[in-house]
# Entry
Amino acid sequence: MLRDGPMIDAHRVTLAAPDDFDGWRDAARDLAEAGVPAEAVVWQVEGGDPDLFGGDGAATPSASFPVPRNFVGLAIAGLGVLMILGFPLFRLPGDFAIRRGNFSFYFPLATSIVLSILLTLLLSLFRR
# Structure
């Protein structure tokens, strides 16, 4: 789809196929070297739509996943219970802690992996 208004300085690039990366790369480099702005380029595929990246301008709705407030409260309470019971949250064996003089660095690698797995399982239960 062509942009609104006249495009006197429009550059039309025709690719051989939708997956013609080499052709796209070469044309994009040539246009960038010539100082052509991206808005002035119309990309198309031989025998395809007149504008490869054009559209009706409407944004496609993204999938949303609303989380109930009760779930957030329960998750925070659950973390608190785990910490009270002595679960070494944020101090797992795979977490990196470096302390040297005035400098300290902490990277919770194992904790991040455990939390990612737990959240993935919980969210997959709520999606069903």
